[in-house]
Every structure is written in structure tokens, then in C-alpha cells.
Amino acid sequence: MKKRVGILGGTFDPPHIGHLIIANEVLHRLNLHQVEFMPNQEPPHKNRTSGTTLNNRLEMLELAIEGQPAFSIEKIELERQGRSFTIDTINILQQLYPEKEYYFIIGADMVEYLPKWHKIEELVKKLHFIGVNRPNYQLISPYPVTSVEVPQIDISSSLIRDRRKMGESIKYLLPDKVISYIEENYLYES
User: Fold this and answer.
1) Rounded to two decimals, what is the model's pTM?
2) Which of 26, 54, 88, 134 could form a disulfide with 107 if both were Cys (CB 3.0 to 4.6 A apart)?
3) For residues 34 and 3, is the Cβ–Cβ distance under 8 A?
4) CA dihedral defined by 96, 84, 128, 29, rounded to 10 degrees?
5) What is the dihedral of CA 147, 23, 100, 128, to 10 degrees?
6) What is the pLDDT of residues 95-151, one digit of tens each?
């Protein structure tokens, strides 16, 4: 029997409680063995300008998942250069870990975007898509997506970065250790 592994990809710039809630809900609702957080280097659909380094994001993510044995970090996309497509990543992961069955966790915004994903027809044959609800989006797709309802917490990394720039509080939006790291490293300040 294959090990059932969720993958939650993102920039995690910074990782916040919304990411952790999604991972925890999917882990338990689908009886997964593990959820791997997969920070990406250069997502095809975003341009990063936060000023943080890959190392900053990785260290914050390590702090965020500390103490949860079912959570880990998959660094494959950090080790690759240039734009990264999910199909390429999954092909490599399946070669490296044939004992794992992958469940790719995406927000409802990405569920709507699936028809535009690179080689989506091939990708849906290689993994299970898990869609989680997000405000103002629907979990509707022409592709097979298992939906998981998660508590609605409208927090984004960009909200946190904006609040830091404005000198506003980010308490309770992230784990305390991540907040300390952000403050100690003067991240996201104006």
C-alpha cells in the first residue's frame, strides 16, 4: 500500500496560520500519512518582490511546522532553477518516491485556474487534486478535484507583508516563532 502524501505548494512568504489550517484539515479529513510543504522558487503565475531570500522562507516554514510530526518540507523546487511547472515536479517526485501516492492541495482560486495549467491532461492522471474553499471562489473544475471544506480565515501572505510595511500588528496571523523571526530579521518593513 502506498503512503498517502499531501503536497501544499506556495511561496510561503511568509507561512501563516491559513496554510497550517489547510494542511491540518486535509491531513485529517483524507486520512493522509503526511503533508509536505513545498516552497517554490519561481511560480509560473507570480512575480515575487518581497525582498526575502529562499533561505528566509525556508527557515520561517521550518519554524511554522515545528512540533507537527505529520508535516515536513519538500525542497525539490528550491533545488531547481527557473520557472517550475507542477508536471515536472511530480514526474521527479514519482521517480524518487514510487512508494508515495500524491494529493496536490490547491485553493479554490487555483481550481478555477486548472484548465490553464501546463500539461494538465497528463497531470490529472498522475495525482489527486484536493481543492479547499477560499472566499469569492468556487470549487468548480472540468477536472477531477476532491473538495475539502476548511474554516474560512481570509489571511494571505500579501496581507501580512502589507501590515508589516504599515507598522501594523501581525499577532495571531502567524505562529509566534515566525513572527519573532520576521522581527529579528527586519523582514517586510518599509
Assistant:
1) 0.90
2) 134
3) yes
4) 100
5) 20
6) 999 999 999 999 888 888 889 999 999 999 999 999 998 777 778 888 899 999 999
Residue 190: inside a domain: no
- For residue 170, give every residue at least 6 positions away whose Cβ sits within 8 Å of its Cβ, in sequence order, or none: 160, 163, 164, 179, 182
In a domain? residue 158: no
DSSP annotation of 6 reads E
- Report the candidate in 8, 10, 38, 4 with the shortest Cα–Cα distance to residue 24: 8
Tell me the three-class secondary structure of 100-111, residue by residue. EEEEEEEEHHHH
Non-local (6+) Cβ contacts of 56 within 8 A are 185, 187
Is 54 part of any domain? yes
**Separation between Cα atoms, residue 59 and residue 57, nearest integer Å:** 6
Does the residue 173 lie in any domain?
Answer: no
CATH number of residue 83's parent domain:
3.40.50.620
**Collapsed DSSP state (helix, strand, coil) of residue 145:** strand
- The tally of domains found in the chain comes to 1
Range of the domain at 110: 3-152
